[in-house]
Amino acid sequence: MPTTNNRNAKKERILNAALKLFSQQGFHATTTKEIAAESGVAEGLIFYHFGDKRKLLLYLVNNFSFVTQLQEEAGELSKLPAEEALFQYGLAYLGFLRTNMDYLMLIWSPELIRDAEVSSEVSRLIEGFGTAGSSILKQAARPKHPSEHTVQVAMMMMTSSILVYCMLHSRFEQEALPLGDESYIRELVRLLMRGFNEES
After folding, report:
1. How far is 128 from 156, CA to CA, in rounded Å?
2. In this structure, what are the phi and psi dihedrals at residue 29, rounded to the nearest 5 degrees?
3. pTM here?
4. Long-range contacts formed by 150-158: CB under 8 A, 24+ apart
5. What is the DSSP string of 98-132?
6. What is the pLDDT of residues 142-175, one digit of tens each?
7. DSSP assignment of the chain
8. What is the rounded end-to-end Cα distance, in angstroms, of the chain?
9. Distance between CA 129 and CA 118 in Å, rounded?
């Protein structure tokens, strides 16, 4: 009888293979046979764990989240001064994006942009990114109390700027933005804090 660790390892291999193939070939063009071959498992195991290819896709979309990683680091970030916490948040977010480029390519692929259910999940995840960082920003604004709208816009500016930086860097490397990661994120946080403090 297979152990739980062995089953989890096979499930992880299926997820990694599906993510790779979906992002490279597209969801519709990828077969469960290809996923099984890539992951080194029997095709029936895909159906056992996920039911069908569509449910496998939705599982991938729902379970690759920066929010989970951030929740693990929240305790440490809360001990830092707000500007440093935002800087560390930015570095962690950039690291997540770089580690999960296949995931980004998948959720922003033309075929999945048109998928209402996937788009709804992606929207929920993006809201989670902002919510996770907004507590840091609110801490920075004390004793002032900025509106929720201002906090959301500020976090969206930060996360979207880092996303664009990541995409430009992955395509053009140093040619696009000669600043290093830390310099870029420090300057971004400085500008964000300056504008945020003037607003609040």
Report:
1. 11
2. -80, -15
3. 0.79
4. 150/196, 150/199, 150/200, 154/192, 154/195, 154/196, 155/129, 155/130, 156/130, 157/192, 158/86, 158/90, 158/133, 158/188, 158/189, 158/192
5. HHTHHHHHHHTSHHHHT-HHHHHHHHHHHHHHHHH
6. 667 778 888 888 888 898 899 889 988 888 876 6
7. ---HHHHHHHHHHHHHHHHHHHHHH-TTT--HHHHHHHHTS-HHHHHHHHSSHHHHHHHHHHH--HHHHHHHHHHHHHTS-HHHHHHHHHHHHHHHHHHTHHHHHHHTSHHHHT-HHHHHHHHHHHHHHHHHHHHHHHHHHTTS---HHHHHHHHHHHHHHHHHHHHHHHHHGGGT--S-HHHHHHHHHHHHHHHHHHH-
8. 61
9. 17
Amino acid (1-letter code) at residue 180? G
1 is written with which tokens? 């009888």
Amino acid, res. 121: E
